[in-house]
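Entry 12.
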Amino acid sequence: MTDPRTTAAALAALLALAALVLRRVRRARRRTPAAVIVAALGALLCTAYSGDTSWNFARDHLAMHGVAERAVMFAAAELALFAVALMARQNLGTTGAPGTPGTLVWLITGVQVIPAYSESGIVAGTVRAFVGPGLAALLWHLAMGIELRHHKPGEESRSLPAVLVREARERLLSYLGLSRRGRDAAQITRDRWTRTATRRAARLADLIAAGAGPRRVARARRRLATAVDRTDAGVLPEQRAVLLDRLAAYRGAADLASMSLPAPWAVTPGTVERDAVTATVPPAHAAGPGADTERPDEGETSTPMPGAVTQASEPEPPAADLAELAVVAGVPTPAPGDQLAAEQLVVVLRWLRYQEDPPRSYRAAVTAFRDAGYVGSEERVRRAWGDLMSREEDGTAAR
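Predicted 3D structure (tokens):
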């Protein structure tokens, strides 16, 4: 029988943890949707449900009979699950993927299924495993995914399970012939029968060429006529064009083996001569030592040498200074020592990143940020860096 003092201590610890989470939620309620809050609270309760299983498992199978020993050790897996879930959530805000912590969430969940079956058998153990660690991991995952879409609309998780699910879905749709969006059921049926009619037409031609019997030829003709009728090629010009193009490609595929094609790395003589002339002409068009390199007078035009290829090479624009970037972003110029807004942090990090060639990494940019005297917490700087990287990937960051 469970000691009432132990139950009271466990409830007190759970209430303290819930109060901490609610305090964090209250601070973040302006930027976190209600779905994420409810999912996080549900995951917390399921983690506590799993903790009850671990408490009994530590007593019955791990020989932890002391209350103090169990109080310290039984919730190791639950706290680890809670910790890696929070780390995965933080990774989503910076890199866009849960990373290793996201994988550890499912690994810990799989291990926690063992105590559930050991304590309660097959039937009750299945309930404990699903409501406890299984549902907790699922709710943590959903909460992280919802929050990612809340902060970055249209963004999808780049974790390994999410990528595998999306790839499997796309491959299945392609196999079923449903990869093209925006088609109705009638068009999908016509496209399928168009491919079938192409194969049957080629089959009929092969039978006739091989001198097949009349019955086989007649059967192939009937099947081809049925397929062509279902393509609606006789009444739809665009479908008829697709059918003829497919049939021409299908029947002419064997000609690819005998076609004479130039090697892709073969270079024509004109290309070699043009490259040689371009390489021998100096940038200043100097004819040799002591040649006149003065610019022509206004109104004069220089005539290029026959066969020479001139290239207009513009120098790369110099890196914009901080004030110009602030004007483009529509924010006041950031000053060292001042409390910076989120967009000002992005401007400063962008300016520091492209001061050098190659651009600075995150750690180098943060070091330069601190050395220059700018102020900002590590979390805000990391979030601004993630915003900058997202803009660069989307092509919206000014180059």
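Annotation: The longest helix spans residues 99-151. The CA atoms of residues 157 and 163 lie 8 Å apart.
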